[in-house]
Amino acid sequence: MFEIIKSGGWLIWPIIACSIIAGAIIIERFWALKKSNVVPSSLFGQIRELIERRELNQEKIQAIAQSSPLGRVMAAGLGSAGRHRMVMRESLEEEGRQVAHGLGRNLTTLGTIATITPLLGLLGTVIGMIKVFSAITAFGVGDPQALAGGISEALITTAAGLAVGIVTLMFYRYFRGRVNSLTVDMEQDAVRLVNLVHGDPE
To answer: Residue 141: pLDDT band by 50, 70, 90 thresholds?
Structure first.
């Protein structure tokens, strides 16, 4: 395996580095974007119970905010629950935008890796072919050994760049869809909270 990597030339190392970074981001985002971590299904019921029992105070609102990203949004709304309906909605929307931005953390880096790794592979192809033509100029076409290095470098870097780029792009698209889905779920719970607080429960 090391010999194959070595045959890929110096451009194989940036591609490997990109694959390691992408792998770390993918693992981190899988954990961070679990629905149970972001939008706990029981949170709205707990808040409704606290409101009905008139047990909601600043300490419990703080605990809700620290419980999950959805909790942050709900706590922002509860903090302005005594004000006009539109004020409460604006508080929820403002906090929701910040939380949604946080859910997309590192996805820009993932998208950049998905874009540049095939280009690095293409650059490796060009460099490998330059070496092939240089060898042809120096030794002619009668020496396969002289041509093999450039051809193997071209093929290995291309394959590595495409493999990393394709896999990374798949996860980037998946996580983007995941963030959008979780954002919609948070918006729905926020609307339910406004209706609950202002006397229009479902």
So the answer is: low
Rounded distance between C-alpha atoms, residue 113 and residue 121, angstroms:
12
- Assess if residue 74 is contained within a domain: yes
Interatomic CA distance for residues 78 and 25, integer angstroms:
33
Residues in contact with 57: Cβ distance below 8 Å, sequence separation at least 6, in sequence order: none
Confirm whether 171 is domain-assigned: yes
Number of structural domains in the chain: 1
Q: What is the model's pLDDT at position 201?
A: 45
H helix runs in the chain, sequence order: 2-7, 12-32, 35-38, 43-52, 58-67, 69-79, 85-103, 107-139, 144-197
**pTM for this entry:** 0.80
Residue 17 lies in a domain: yes
Tokens of 135: 């060898």
Please indicate, yes or no, if residue 128 is contained in any of the structural domains: yes
